[in-house]
Each structure stands twice: as C-alpha cells, then as structure tokens.
Amino acid sequence: MFSENHRIAGVAHPKGFKAAGVRAGIKKNGNLDVAVIHTEREAAVAGVFTKNLVAAAPVQVSKKVVATGTAHAIVANAGCANACTGEQGLHDAERMAEITAGELGCKVDDVIVASTGVIGFNLPMDKMESGIKAAVQKLSREGSVNAGNAIVTTDTYSKACATEVEIGGVEVRFGAIAKGSGMIRPDMATMLCFITTDADIDAKLLQSALSDATEVSFNCISVDGDMSTNDSVVVLANGAAGNPKITERGEDYEKFSATLKTLCVELAKRIAADGEGATKFLTINVTGAQTFADAKRVGMSVANSPLVKTAFFGQDANPGRTICAVGYSGVDIVPEKTVIDFGGVNVYRDGLVTKFDAEAMRNVLAQRDIVVDIALNLGDAAATIYTCDLSFQYVKINADYTT
Amino acid sequence: MFSENHRIAGVAHPKGFKAAGVRAGIKKNGNLDVAVIHTEREAAVAGVFTKNLVAAAPVQVSKKVVATGTAHAIVANAGCANACTGEQGLHDAERMAEITAGELGCKVDDVIVASTGVIGFNLPMDKMESGIKAAVQKLSREGSVNAGNAIVTTDTYSKACATEVEIGGVEVRFGAIAKGSGMIRPDMATMLCFITTDADIDAKLLQSALSDATEVSFNCISVDGDMSTNDSVVVLANGAAGNPKITERGEDYEKFSATLKTLCVELAKRIAADGEGATKFLTINVTGAQTFADAKRVGMSVANSPLVKTAFFGQDANPGRTICAVGYSGVDIVPEKTVIDFGGVNVYRDGLVTKFDAEAMRNVLAQRDIVVDIALNLGDAAATIYTCDLSFQYVKINADYTT
After folding, report:
1. Residue numbers in A near B333 (CB within 8 A)
2. What is the pLDDT of residue A225?
3. Pairwise CB contact (< 8 Å): A84 & B313
4. Per-residue pLDDT band at A187 (split at 50, 70, 90)
C-alpha cells in the first residue's frame, strides 16, 4: 500500500497534480527550501490548523483560502516560520500567494501558504520571489521528493506516501508529504502535511473527513492541534479521477474517509518515529476507557512525560513512571483495575509493579519499536498514541537551534 | 532571615523539636536514608499531599494522621518510594509508624510517614526497623542537617532554612527541611517538605495557612500538587513558644501565615534551582492576568516547555518559543497586548519579536539566574513560577535512575 514507488510519487501520485522543490537560500545550510504543489483543475480544499492563539501569518492567510472551498496550489517554505512577525509577516505571506498566483495564472485566494522554521524573523522576500518562480518552472509529476525535502527542518528524512482505493468503480488516488518537529511537545514551528487526491468530493465532506482523520493521527502524536504557531494539514481534491462526486455520507464517503485516515496515521507514525533525537518509537495503546477523550488523555500524559521518555531512552525498566503518568492524567482511573504491559510483558497489575523477568524486559527495551499497552478496564473506548524517547540528541538539537 | 545558622538549625530551630538522620542501608550508595523528627509536646498538624490517583502507601497513612489534627513525630526515608506496592506497601508504611511510636512512646496515629525514591519496590523492613531505632536514639537539637540529608535523592544538596517572627509579643520560630526531584514535571517521587514551628495555633487555621502557602510556593515550581505519587508537605506546630494561641483570623494569624509563606517560597526556589541537571534558575513573572489561575497557567506552560528550557540551557535567544508556549497555554491571551522581557531586555511586543541588542542578550543568558517577565495587560492578577533549564545531565540522570 505504501511502497517505495508510492513514496517517490507522493503528492503527484493522484492525477492532475505536479510538484517541485527548489533552493532559494532561506535555509542557512543551503538545502531545498521552497515547495510548490499545483493542480490545473480546481480542487476542493480542506484544512486543519493550529489552535495556538499566536498563529503564524501563513496560517491566517490559508484559513481564508480554505473558507472559499477551492484552491489551485500550495506554496511552502522551510527555514523561517514567519511567525510573530506582525503586519509585515502578514504582508509577506500574502505576497507569497500573489507571486505564486501570478506565475500559475490562478487567483490569489486559491493559493494555500505555509512556512516552518525559526519564529520571529521576517522572510527574505527577494529570495522567496526567485524561489517561487523557479519552483513553478520546475513543476512536474516527479517533483514530490524535492517538494518534500523543501519543507523539512530538523527532520532526519522527508515523510511521503501515497495510495489508491476504488470508489464508485473508479481508482481514486491519494498522495502526501509531511514534516515533523521536536516531539516532546512540538511547541514550535511545525508539523506540516499536504495531501492531494484526485477524488471528486464536496468541500464540506472533505473537511469532515480530514478533521476526523486528524483526530486519530496527527492529534495522537505528541502534536496537539493547539500547540505550534504554524501547524497546518491541508488536503486538495481535484476530481480528476472521475468518480461519481461524493456529495453525501454513505459507502463512497466511508471508503474515502477510511483511506484518508490510514494515510494520515501512517504519516503521523513516521513523524513520531523521527522525533528530534529519537532512538525509540513508542506506540501507546490505551484501552478500556470510558471515552476516546479519556483514552487519549491518558496516552498523552504518558507520551509527554519526560521521565517516561528518558527511561525508554536509557532502556531502563521503570514502569513506576508510566503508572505515575497515568495517575496524574486527570482521568478518573482506578489503579487496582489498571494493567500495563511493555512489549507484551506485564509490568503493572492489581496496584503493584509486577516482578517481571529481567531478561525478557531487557529484550523488549533493546528494540527500537516498543509497544506500551495500558488497559484501564473501565469501558470500551480506546486510543493509540505514537511518540518517541527523549535523548541527549534532543537537548543538543534544541539548545542551539537558532544559533 | 535565612542564615547559615538557620540552615543548620533547620527543623530543630523551634523550641521543643529534635531531629536525626541515619544510614539504614536503603539507599544503594550507603548515604543517610532514614530521618526522624520529634516533638515531646503534642503538636497541631497540617498537610498537603499529592493529588495523583496513584498515591503511595505512606501518603495514605499520613492523611489519616493529619485528619486527627495532632502529631508527635515524622518518620521518613529515601531510596525507596513504597509506591505501587499494594497491601504489602500499606502494611510496611503502617509498620514504620508503629516502630517509631514504640520507640518514642507515642500513639501510632501521631506519626507522619513519608518515603521517596524508586517506585514499585517494597521497603526492606529489617533495615528500616534498625534505622528508625538508631535515629530515635540520636534525636538532638543538632540533628536537622542529618535529617535533611537522609531525605534527599537526586538533589545535589539538602534544602533547609529557619526563621522567626514576633507574634503576640513572643518570638515564634519556624524551621524546615525539604527535597526536590526532576523539575520538568516532577512526575515521580517526590517533593517532600517538613516544617516545624513552636507557634500555638489551631489545627484548622494551620491547615489553611499551609494550603495558602503551598499554592504560591511548591505549586508554583513545576511541582503540581497532583503530579508525583509521594509529594507531601507537612507542618507541626507544638505551641512551645507560648504565644497567645491563634484561634481566629486576625493580625496574629496574618503574621503567622505570611512567615510560613515566605519560608515555603524560599524552599520552593531552592528546589527549582536544584532541578536535576539544572544549569539555570528561571523566575517567570506573569503579570496583568485576569485571575491568579490564568497567570499561573501561562507561567506553567512556559516553565514546562522543553523547547523553552533547552533554549535557556543553550543560552540561545529564542523568544519565539516563549511566546508560543504563552499562546498554547489555554488562557485567552492577546498576542498584540503581550510584552515579554528576558532579564529586563524586551524580546516581544506588539505581536513581534523585538530586534534586541544581541550583546545585551548574551549577557542576560550567560547568567545562572534569569528573570522572564510576561505582561499580559489584561487585568491585575499575577503569579511567579520558578523553574530550571533542561540539560544533557537531566537526560543522563533519568535514563539510568533505577539501574
């Protein structure tokens, strides 16, 4: 479903989409830093954005585009978040849309804008203008890899995938590129994800499907929607597949929605696994909660605990820290009913830390991928949270990010 | 007010109190690990305990003692938290009280019990019994330093102070010992603080004064009351000073309460400054909030941000991370009204990161003590939060704490 070919195809996998990434000199290291994604055919658009009250200028611009229901392009840069930049920042974000629209011959309010990088600096608009123009010239069906690389910051690799599903007897394609960030709580710019599909779907239903998918994917890694200044997840649906237009909830919508969800979960997992300095990928399954919100709250409490994260980094069997984080999550758990396993080995039950086999636990903790199962035994709701450990490298990366 | 002599006198500064700390072999490193504090004269008692639903056995025992309103002694150990230990743990905590009461000739329910250290292991009760007996034998007016050293875990130094105030024409003395823990969010055992005073005060008023003092001190470092399994703050007031008994709110109560508050804030600051691996001590003043709760929430959001903390560790001028944490705090702030200074140098105003003088900022960030002022300009409420930075050493300490 998510092959190497799919990864390479990325956002240009669905019909009618092209992409490009170029070097504009915005990143200090000289890497690719400006991306453009384009659909000639007008696309329905939906978006989920940061709830942070300090929202970056491009987020403000893009929300207006999503409100129109249609879009033709996405322009994005890395290296500078254009956040906390006031009127100048808003003007610069609007200029990014104008330049892109001018080059592509579409309307200004058909261009989604996104930025990621350091907060508090203005965009170098001369470089940006040359970069956008160059990117538009390079738009191609092969351009997704470069576009993906142009939006990363401290990511160690670009996240991309693609897939397809049959809807109404027609093959409908999906593609995506994404970037992550510091994973304890990514309170700085930014998680970005751009999804393309050639499905024909009503914009309101597209928004509904994206909101649902985000809830169990990007909002289930330590990325809370309300954290960073620049978080943006945007989907464009251009209808080029020719499926019977999805205009109501039903089988077609469910298929579309399920596929979008799978795609988003896959990207979310890759983002968590590539958290800054990560040496471990932790999957935290919380079951037996009374509500999804409760299950998520417990899982996030564990995922956000620096003490839990450093213990996994140190391959140190420390279930006490996990049950402690469950206990202070704010959810009305019952310690005596709670059961916790690390990699299938029971570590907590009946209010007690279990006398587990030390050798078996060492084997579990030596793996890169570790599953933590937390059964609350209070109800039927569940949530899965993805996160990573907290390493020396995390501190190093974040102690000298701007300098 | 808090001199070296005061520090040495500690909990034995007030009349009628003795203390001791001994080596019982509970800590792996062989350091002092069992403490006893005793007042011959019956004391009024008050306590504030963790709100974590996974509360350790000693917390459960001590809450019952506080409910009686009187106590004669405190027994505490470090090296093993006696948390997540079920029925056996509860039995062991009760045994600690029994042994202490037997040696001191007081009632079992007059003995406060506290433990700190690794979660999930049972106390070695043979060692504990010898330790308590030895400690009771060594009780003295000079024993506070040893008692303080016997309750520390990863602290780099024991926290102690003492002071006095005139109430009703009589000198009333206060003393305290305390220990801290990991400071990002101390979600493991434990913050402990034992306060003694020779004031004569009604137990209900003592509880009220302690609760108020805790709110602006221990609950204003990253220690939320609801975090660890073992957090305990206990005060004993034995009346030996002979002041007119404080039985109602009024001038005497206010003096008592203000002094207790000053003592608690001083200890809280020392705990924050000695956070695991700390190289910086951060004072976060939030002003202009609509309520104290709002001010505290904004300050805690900044204090708990790993990205803010690593930036200060790296002496990296990164105000974007601070305003970002203000923005996602959940408080309805207005970015354009918010003003942020680092060490008196303005870094954010009018929705913009300020073009501050780089040399001046380097000087600010090179200090160990850094003040972050956040003015919300929305109301008259304020809160001060104390925290530390996040260093390599923090990760190292916590990656191999149990092993």
Report:
1. 53
2. 35
3. no
4. very low
B171 φ/ψ angles, rounded to the nearest 5 degrees: -75, 125
pLDDT-derived band at A391, boundaries 50, 70, 90: confident
Contacts of A144 (CB under 8 A, 6+ apart): A8, A9, A10, A11, A12, A13, A19, A160, A175, A177
Convert A223-254 to b/e letters by CB count within 10 Å (16 or more is b): bbbbbbbbbbbbbbbbbbbebeebeeeeebbe
- Lowest mean pLDDT of A23-27, B101-105, B305-309, name the range: B305-309
Longest dimension (CA), chain A: 68
Q: What is the pLDDT of residue A395?
A: 74
Please state which of the four CATH numbers 3.90.226.10, 3.30.413.10, 3.10.20.340, 3.40.1110.10 is assigned to the domain occupying B281-399.
3.10.20.340
pLDDT digits 0-9 by tens, A128-146: 999 999 999 999 999 999 9
pTM: 0.85
With beta carbons under 8 A apart, name residues in chain A contacting B318. 118-119, 401-402
Mean pLDDT of A169-195: 78
Q: Which is the catalytic residue, given A153, A154, A190, A384?
A: A190
Domain A4-272: homologous superfamily in CATH: L-amino peptidase D-ALA esterase/amidase (3.60.70.12)
Task: Please indicate whether residue B190 is annotated as part of the active site.
Answer: yes
User: Is B188's pLDDT higher than 60?
Assistant: no
User: Given A84, A320, A398, which is nearest B323 (Cβ)?
Assistant: A84
Comparison of pLDDT for B287 and B4, the residue scoring more: B287
Per residue in A67-87, is it b (16+ CB within 10 Å) or e — as a string? eebbbbbbbbbbbbbbbbbbe
User: What tokens were used for A265?
Assistant: 């979960």
CB contact under 8 A, B310 and A398: yes
Task: State the burial class of residue B40 (Cβ atoms within 10 Å of its Cβ: 0-12, 13-18, 19+).
Answer: middle
Residue with tokens 């992550």: A180
CA distance A8 to B209: 65
The radius of gyration computed from the CA coordinates of chain A, to the nearest angstrom, equals 21
User: What is d(CA B62, CA B233) in angstroms, rounded to the nearest whole number?
Assistant: 10
* Tokens found for residue A383: 């949530």
- The Cα–Cα gap between A361 and A342 comes to 8
**Closest listed residue to residue B27, CA positions, set B117, B100, B162, B90:** B117
What are the residues facing A64 on neighbouring strands? none
C-alpha count within 13 angstroms, C-beta hemisphere, residue B337: 12
Contact A187 B305 (CB under 8 A): yes
pLDDT-derived band at A230, boundaries 50, 70, 90:
confident
Closest-CA residue in chain B for A182? B307
Residue B373 has pLDDT above 50, yes or no: yes
Q: List chain A residues with CB under 8 Å of B400.
A: 314, 316
Cβ of B224 within 8 Å of Cβ of A84? The answer is no
Identify the bridge partners of residue A282 per DSSP, sorted by sequence position.
A370, A387
Q: Which residues of B touch A185 (CB under 8 A)?
A: 305-307
Who's near B106: CB < 8 A, 6+ residues apart?
Answer: B72, B73
Write the CA distances from A259 to A265, B2, B323, integer angstroms.
10, 65, 37
Closest partner residue to B227 (CB to CB) among A52, A83, A328 is A328
Cβ pairs bridging A and B (under 8 Å): 217
Give the pLDDT of residue B328.
87
Whether CATH 3.60.70.12 fits B4-273: yes
What CA–CA distance (Å, rounded) separates B342 from A40?
49
Q: What is the mean pLDDT of residues A283-309?
A: 92
SS3 state of residue A195? strand
Q: Which of B100, B190, B259, B387 is catalytic?
A: B190
How is chain A split into domains, by residue range? 4-272, 281-399
Return left, alpha or beta for B117; rule: phi > 0 is left, psi -120 to 50 is alpha, else beta. Answer: left
